[in-house]
Specification:
Blueprint (H helix, E strand, L loop, with lengths): L2 E3 L8 E5 L1 H13 L3 E5 L3 E5 L2 E2 L4 E5 L3 E5 L9 E3 L2 E21 L2 E3 L26 E15 L2 E3 L6 E4 L2 E6 L2 E3 L10 E4 L2 E6 L2 E4 L4 E5 L9 E7 L2 E4 L2 E9 L2 E15 L1 E7 L4 E14 L11 E7 L26 E13 L3 E5 L4 E13 L9 E3 L8 E3 L2 E7 L1 E7 L2 E4 L7 E8 L2 E6 L1
Length: 443
């Protein structure tokens, strides 16, 4: 393949010069020549503002090469979510293209702390902004066919790290994502209206969700997120390691997640339906989950497994009214059904929670799901986190290993509960069920 070395375009790897123009010229020439490799040679730090990937281009970072986001907020002007200006901007972008590869043993560094306010105990303070939130998403690819991200390290994103909207035929393999655990909204991988995806052998640390499945309203024309496999990944999150929702206006379906390890996370696996879309035919198997409580700034209360279907809360903040369909101020929530968990080991400070509005959650199966509950931190417990919902935000109640509310058809087979040595008065019972029907249990 033809190689387009960015240094031959006068890019300078001193970490000081902005190389946006030089990098974009190399990408453009590569694409216009029928494709090839845009090379970032070893032992350089190439600082850059926003640029766009194009068809038939492989962005390759050699070992010890770094692509670093320009810390100047003024260079980030394009919204990551179209007319919704309050949720970050685009750094590395690309749209309506095919056959894109990001590879190599180098690093793409989003320079995230440069966009933060002061550091506090639980998180960095988010800076005030006027119209557009300048925090850049590290990678925003829209309507890309045939995408492969492999071997690279992605780190320090100021907002979402990898956002794929309307993409098809995606492979993400042997990638390390190392986001700061105190930066809010620093998701690892967000699959948004994206189809036919394989994620394997990745290591992800994120302040927010590690791998998140969405169908956001801004990109609703692309249809469902479907046909996804995730295997052999290790994740740590200050929020939820694997999340489906909360933004979901279409369908999330046909997902298999297996042979993964979740460590020290505020929530292990979360299905958080808050919009009119559905979540269906999801399988989780052979997963180890280790949870712990964190500060209220972060969604989650150490639920190792969490399945909910509640209408989105109506208010004036960015997480509410911008999410509703045009002309509506009150939303609705779709169904969650046909979800199975098998061979799951949970160790956390809270139990499994499954609850929603009536007739919204159906056919949930737990097989060989073993949970150990023990107090580990000084954060308050006896709470389930239902945010952002039109009901109670933080539900204060006794902790049960399995909590079911308004569920139809539940199977609990060959599963166990163990209470650890360090207990609290609100640790209560193995199973609590309210307004639920067809609960089937078997040893």
């Amino acid at each position: 393949m033809k190689i387009f070395d960015v240094t031959s375009y006068n890019a300078v790897g001193n970490g000081i010069k902005d190389n946006t123009v030089e990098i974009q010229k190399a990408i453009d020439d590569c694409c216009n020549s029928g494709g090839g490799i845009v090379l970032f040679p070893a032992d350089n730090v190439f600082m850059s503002g926003p640029f766009n990937l194009k068809s038939n281009v492989e962005l390759r970072l050699e070992k010890n090469s770094v692509l670093l986001a320009n810390p100047n907020e003024a260079v980030y002007k394009k919204s990551a979510f179209k007319e919704n200006l309050g949720e970050g901007t685009v750094w590395i972008g690309g749209e309506d293209a095919e056959n894109i590869v990001i590879s190599g043993e180098g690093t793409i560094d989003g320079n995230g702390i440069a966009f933060m306010g002061p550091e506090e105990k639980a998180a960095y303070v988010l800076k005030d902004f006027n119209i557009i939130d300048p925090r850049p998403h590290l990678l925003t690819l829209i309507n890309i066919k045939h995408l492969n991200i492999k071997d690279v390290t992605l780190k320090n994103s100021a907002y979402w790290c990898v956002h794929l909207a309307g993409c098809e035929d995606v492979t993400i393999e042997k990638v390390r994502i190392l986001n700061n655990l105190k930066i809010r909204n620093s998701d690892g991988i967000d699959l948004d209206h994206t189809k036919n995806v394989k994620i394997n052998d990745c290591y992800i640390e994120s302040g927010d969700d590690c791998i998140c499945f969405k169908t956001r309203r801004e990109y609703e024309g692309f249809g469902p997120t479907e046909n996804v496999t995730v295997t052999n990944c290790t994740m740590t999150s200050t929020s939820c390691s694997i999340k489906l929702g909360s933004e979901n206006v279409d369908a999330i379906r046909n997902v298999n997640i297996s042979d993964c390890v979740i460590k020290s996370s505020n929530r292990g696996i979360g299905i958080q339906n808050r919009d009119e879309g559905t979540v269906e035919n999801i399988q989780f198997e052979n997963i180890s989950i280790e949870g712990r409580l964190f500060d209220d700034i972060w969604w989650g209360k150490a639920e190792p497994i969490y399945i909910t279907a509640y209408k989105r809360k109506a208010s004036k903040d960015k997480d509410s009214n911008l999410r509703f369909a045009k002309g509506q101020t009150v939303g609705k929530v779709g169904k969650v059904k046909d979800i199975s968990f098998s061979n799951i080991t949970c160790k956390s400070e809270n139990g499994i929670f499954v609850g929603g509005e009536k007739n919204k959650i159906k056919n949930i199966k737990f097989t060989n799901v073993n949970i150990e509950i023990e107090k580990k931190t000084n954060y308050a417990g006896g709470i389930y986190d239902l945010r952002p919902s039109d009901t109670v935000g933080l539900l204060k109640t006794e902790t049960s290993a399995f909590y079911f509310e308004n569920i139809e058809d539940i199977s609990l087979i060959d599963s166990s509960v163990k209470w650890g040595i360090r207990k609290t008065p609100y640790y209560n019972r193995a199973l609590f069920a309210r307004s639920s029907s067809n609960i089937y249990g078997e040893n």
